[in-house]
Design goal:
Helix content is 45%, strand content 17%. The protein has 9 helices and 5 strands; from the N terminus they run H-H-H-H-H-H-H-E-E-H-E-H-E-E. 30% of the residues are buried.
Length: 218
């Protein structure tokens, strides 16, 4: 434990390995010798993935041997702090050149959620983001998304291009039949007003899926 603290103080927090970082977050004191084994257990049990560990809820974290409530709470607080910092640094107005730009913009906002949210990015003709708006929360189905609201806001903003994006808490970015139905429904509604649906991007912990990159939107 002392070696990790000394490393942090002499070389900075960015020099810490994943298990060292988790150790210091869950440690209850500078002489907490259990913290290192707890951190290693937590990472080992979840494929040595910081992303998987960060996505665990409180109940699952407490199941890690030796973790307990207070350590789990500190770890969740650290994860939430990082999420909010990333969200605050995500640009509110940016240019979207490809699906990776969509992920960069939306991952801090929806990537770690335990429920599905669907958002619309409203763009200018030069692909600059005018606004992003949440249109559905809790489930993504064509029947629960109000296309009138999407188009109404596009007309108000004089937006000629829109992008759909939503998250998959399951971790798989593979689109469902409901995702494809939603894409078709929104595209058809937008076309009536000469508005282009340029992409539908699914964000997940294992990656992302772009309908345009997959050839499903032309």
């Amino acid at each position: 434990m002392k070696n990790i603290v000394d490393k942090m103080r002499s070389r900075g927090v960015e020099s810490l390995d994943d298990d060292e970082l988790v150790t210091l977050v869950v440690a209850e004191s500078a002489i907490d010798e259990e913290a290192m084994s707890i951190a290693r257990n937590a990472l080992t049990e979840h494929d040595n993935s910081m992303s998987r560990l960060a996505g665990l809820d409180m109940a699952r974290l407490r199941m890690v041997s030796g973790m307990g409530r207070r350590r789990a709470e500190r770890l969740k607080l650290a994860v939430e702090l990082g999420r909010r910092v990333a969200l605050s640094e995500a640009p509110t107005a940016d240019k979207i050149d490809n699906d990776s730009d969509v992920v960069r913009l939306m991952q801090p906002l929806i990537g770690g959620l335990k429920h599905e949210e669907c958002w619309v990015l409203y763009l200018t003709s030069s692909n600059r983001v005018i606004e992003r708006m949440r249109i559905s929360q809790g489930g993504i189905q064509a029947t629960v998304v109000d296309c009138r609201l999407i188009i109404k806001r596009a007309l108000e903003l004089l937006s000629t291009r829109i992008i759909l994006t939503h998250n998959h808490p399951s971790g798989s970015a593979t689109p469902s039949p409901q995702d494809r139905a939603l894409t078709d429904k929104v595209r058809a509604a937008a076309q009536l007003f000469d508005i282009e649906l340029t992409d539908h991007v699914i964000v997940a912990s294992t990656g992302h899926y772009s309908f345009r990159a997959a050839g499903e939107l032309r």
